[in-house]
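Sequence in, structure out. Go.
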Amino acid sequence: MKISVKGPIISNSDQWIYDWFGIEATSPKKINDQLSEAGKEDLEVEINSGGGSVFDASEIYAVLKDHPANVTVKILGLAASAASVIAMAGNKIMMAPTAQMMIHNASARTQGDYRDMKHAAGFLKNVNQTIANAYSIKSGKGYEELLAMMDKETWLTPQQALEHNLIDEVMFEGQGVTIVASADDGMIPQKVIDRIRNELGLSNTVNPSKQVNSEPVVVTNQKEDGSKMTLEELKNQHPELFEQVKNQGYEAGVQAENDRIKNIEDLAIPGQEELVNQAKFENKITAEQLAVEIVKAEKNRGSQFLQNRNSDAEPLNSVPGAVAPENNGKSDDAEAAEKGKGLADLINKMRGGN
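Output:
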């Protein structure tokens, strides 16, 4: 099973914020969830990260190191700082010829008097020592050498990392490798293709084709005699396979619609009931699209409120000696707090809160 360590290494409590903004990041919980799915399968851990939280990286290192099956680490782009610690968890560590590794000292922001500074310095030295433990276990190097490399902030090419025994292999070296133009080429696994051919009675040497016309879409497969198999023929000749495909498609469609309705209902806020109902039954839009519409509507509602308030105040402003009340008796701070709470409630609902 593949596990990705991409983006900054962050705490569990920060993961939802990165997810909210669509920023790739890795937390211990994210890795633990993937490990739960993997069970006792072998792992292939792909790393491209500039590092982040040392202690969260330490947790990820520990759970990968403790995995009962084989763990192969592939450094695809960058394994820097805390991410290089995670890389050391692999039984086998490989590095792309274009990748880099960086090791350095831990850092922190602190404040206080000289005693606080002295305490912080001691703490950081201890953290450096624990980081060096991971490098030492993998490379067999002594702590003095490793700590000196960390002091200098050492950047390593794949060949240099191999010389220091921090990796086991440079990927693609001495191999005739076929590389596709995409990290995920979308190809169907060969085992699946072979099974479909066997189920349809097709030769392994024949390439099935797909035709799309102005008529209803008919997916056809070329049989050994050169003729085409239509969906109707598939239904007649392989009724069990046809029913299985049809039922799976129906179940997937029902589940997708149920999920869409539930996600939309989770976004419901006072004053936007009409938008929510339209999204569910008329426009058939996604929860993400509805979220954008709600934000726009809330913005327009706020602008309309200010416009109406100013209009209502005009007669009072024309009265000599009179001053129109502002903010309907609310202070600017109170109004700002109210709007801030509304936005926070909206964000909380959109990320699944109550």
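Check: Strands lie at 2-6, 43-49, 71-80, 92-95, 100-103, 154-156, 169-170, 221-222, 228-229. Residues 233-310 form one domain.
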